[in-house]
Amino acid sequence: MKAFMLLSAFCLGLMTFFLNNHSKKTPETNEIFIDSLTIGNKGKNMVDLKHFLDAESYVEIKFFSKKKNQWILKNSYRYEKDFLISCDPVLEDLNNDGYLDFTYKSDVAARGANEVRRLFLYNKKTDELVSMKNSNEFPNLMYNKKLKCLTSQMFHGGSTTVFLKIEKDSLRMFASVDNSDEQVITTYDTKGNPTEIGRKPIDPDEIYDRYDNFNPVE
Q1: What is the CA radius of gyration of the chain?
Q2: What global pTM score does this model have?
Q3: Average pLDDT for 47-54
Q4: d(CA 197, CA 76)
Q5: ∠ CA(68), CA(43), CA(101), 5° rounding?
């Protein structure tokens, strides 16, 4: 009787283990992007992005450094993602250091006018790919050669050009030109406190212009 009970318990445990593991589905890989030729230190770094569809939609980004012909994992990130749009990965130099950085499309807004990308900057000192924590807050990011910073253009009822500095793993807004009923130029201190430095009527044809400078506006 005791042996029968032990056998029954063993069989029940085995069945539970099988059912639990059988029910765990492997997430569906929706997109894959790999570059080991151009990102960071060319030929010595690799970025691997995978977009998974499971109970949720998410991406995993892994960054590697080559040591003695072996790829060593340096960074690993995971973020939720809108499942309706492609990741559309892009490699470009966004801090003018001569090394290619990495972005992927994480969301869209304003009927597609605001393209939101998560930004990862290559750090040549640490040989790592650093995620800019708040890059999702600034759509349509571009490098600004004139001011050696990043700019973002936000579309709403009008548009706002935002000027951004890279500080460690975040982007800090230091100026903006807002075109709505009027054109309002604002600067921001390191704590985010605003100071309005200009205001004037705006030509309706200029409401959606993007700017390279805020003082003067051009």
Answers
A1: 24
A2: 0.85
A3: 95
A4: 42
A5: 125
